[in-house]
Amino acid sequence: xxxxxxxxHGPGKPFTLEEVDLDTPRDDEILVxxxxxxxxxxxxxxxxxxxxxxxxxxxxxxxxxxAVGSAVTKVAPGDHVxxxxxxxxxxxSCDNEAPFYCHSFIPQNIGGFRPDGTPTITQNxxxxxxxxxxxxxxxxxxxxxxxNTVKVRKDAPLELLGPLGCGIQTGAGSVMNGLEPLPDxxxxxxxxxxxxxxxIMAAKLIxxxxxxxxxxxxxxxxxxxxxxxxxxxxxxxxxVVAEIQGxxxxxxxxxxxxxxxxxxxxxxxDCLAPRGTLGQVGVPAPGAEAAVDMGALLNKGLRLVGMxxxxxxxxxxxxxxxxxxxxxxxxxxxxxxFYDLDDINQxxxxxxxxxxxxxxxxxxxx
Length: 366
Ligand SMILES: [Zn+2]
Ligand SMILES: [Zn+2]
Description:
The chain has helices at residues 41-47, 92-95, 105-110, 167-179, 194-206, 218-227, 240-248, 262-270, 294-299, 314-326, 344-352; strands at residues 2-7, 16-22, 29-38, 61-68, 80-83, 121-123, 126-127, 141-145, 149-151, 187-190, 211-214, 231-233, 252-257, 272-280, 303-306, 336-340, 358-362. The model has no long low-confidence stretch (mean pLDDT 96). With 366 residues, the chain is of the alpha/beta class. The strands form 3 sheets. Strands 3, 4, 5, 8, 9, 16 and 17 form a 7-stranded mixed beta sheet that branches. A 6-stranded parallel beta sheet has the order 12-11-10-13-14-15, sandwiched between helices. Strands 1-2-6-7 form a 4-stranded antiparallel beta sheet, with no helix packed on it. Strand 16 (336-340), helix 11 (344-352) and strand 17 (358-362) form a beta-alpha-beta unit. It is globular and about 60 Å long. It binds zinc ion (ZN) (2 copies). One zinc ion binds next to helix 2. One zinc ion binds at residues 87-88, 90-91, 93-94, 102-104.
């Protein structure tokens, strides 16, 4: 079918809204008419990577099921859904309820094509790089599968919900499923974009104290305070390690690194208390390496752990976060600014400048 998509044409080049062709759903596929999609940092990282073909990215889709393949039983036309990440369902991680560490996570999510190599989106008969996170949601319609399609309650504002599929789930889940701090334990969040702010909301829900936010943008530190941070530090004007020791005494028992910077990673390790745990969430540049004080690692019994997609089982966690939102306990809507899909390039600029925290792109009406 003919659909509209924001097509990426290479590093630094603007997205352009174009007509493309979406394949018909196979037996195991779900056709979703998208209402809106979040814009995630990973989309921009991939746009700026040297992809082999023009690409349809986007991986925080929310919409309404339009049609399902003959083998699909999980959802039916008319259901409201949020789309999340793909996994194979058959590897040792998937078998052990850890699909976020699927052995084929990369080909499933950023391979560009279905696992059998066929394209989901073409243009003038030529394949595009798509099937992104088993969706490619910068488009009016997407093909997903049961694995990454999550049915959500119909009384929720569907156009808001896409970020639950990646960014918001990543921040909140890294605290709630990954670090699992207890009430009154100290946590520091390094980098408070949408992921870090979702982590702060989760830490507040748990009752962590203190909750320390670290970021170079004062505007984001102000939002962090609104979301539950008890202390904020701008490393541009203060010594982060000394400040955190001043607040906590021995250091924080938990830290979440949301920037992907090797220098920040080292700082986050240096701020940990004995028996402290660092969760690495920020996506680093390809090949990035970070230095660690091996003596401190040993003597303090530190744990340094990577965390993908908030270690979330999406069918449980996304409806849980949504229930918390509907009960007024997880106000992630305060982080969202809406744009039309046509204005995706402006959304990218505003996000990079810190003018907004999280862009959600609305699809054009028919
Ligand atoms: Zn797997
Ligand atoms: Zn993402």
